[in-house]
């Protein structure tokens, strides 16, 4: 089944998509890529464009791909594929071919990469990155999510939405 262009404003309930259904965050260039499961992030508008916000810890293998690539993708599987998504969140692509183990194949299009098995894909061009600084935490409970290993937040301008 081929992908069709969609408008991000037609996508229903992005909070459910990210928090409940989970997504795969993918980045790559030159035929090399990696993906990781995310359940934190957001979709909205900032600086005059539609945007996605994602968070990656520097020790994650995907981090180096995020740093090098100009674009990243968020892929959704319609609430299915939880086993594959859990595997991609648990295993590191640095140590094993988790993409193959999860039964995923690369799809390169729109200057980006994503798993061909995804039902919905949001393609983003990196616009900004900022390291999370715990001095900015107003709610002290936030710190319980960390052990000194703070995320880098990436803001991506949404440049394409593809759906099967």
Commentary on this structure:
By secondary structure, this protein is an alpha+beta fold. It has helices spanning 14-20, 61-68, 82-90, 98-101, and strands at residues 4-5, 23-29, 32-38, 42-46, 49-56, 71-76, 106-109, 112-115, 120-131, 152-163. The strands form two sheets. Strands 1, 2, 3, 4, 5, 6, 9 and 10 form an eight-stranded antiparallel sheet that branches. Strands 7-8 form a two-stranded antiparallel ribbon. The longest helix is centred in the middle third of the chain and has 9 residues, at 82-90.
Summarize the structure.
The protein has helices spanning 14-20, 61-68, 82-90, 98-101; strands at residues 4-5, 23-29, 32-38, 42-46, 49-56, 71-76, 106-109, 112-115, 120-131, 152-163.
Q: Would you count the extended β strands for me?
A: 10
CA-to-CA gap between the ends?
6 Å
- Give the low-confidence spans: none
- Could you give the order of the helices and strands? EHEEEEHEHHEEEE
Largest sheet: 8 strands, antiparallel
Beta-strand level of the residues, as a percent range?
Answer: 35-45%
Structural class: alpha+beta
Number of helices: 4
């Amino acid at each position: 089944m081929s992908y069709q262009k969609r408008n991000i404003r037609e996508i229903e309930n992005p909070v459910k998509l990210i928090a409940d259904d989970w997504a795969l965050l993918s980045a790559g260039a030159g035929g090399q890529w990696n993906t990781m499961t995310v359940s934190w992030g957001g979709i909205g508008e900032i600086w005059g464009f539609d945007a996605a916000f994602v968070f990656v810890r520097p020790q994650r293998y995907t981090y180096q791909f995020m740093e090098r690539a100009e674009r990243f993708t968020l892929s959704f599987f319609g609430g299915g594929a939880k086993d594959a998504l859990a595997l991609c969140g648990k295993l590191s692509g640095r140590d094993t071919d988790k993409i193959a183990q999860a039964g995923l194949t690369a799809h390169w299009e729109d200057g980006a990469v994503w798993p061909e098995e995804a039902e919905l894909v949001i393609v983003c061009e990196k616009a900004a990155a900022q390291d999370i600084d715990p001095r900015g935490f107003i709610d002290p409970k936030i710190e319980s999510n960390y052990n000194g290993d703070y995320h880098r937040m990436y803001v991506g301008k949404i440049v394409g939405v593809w759906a099967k």
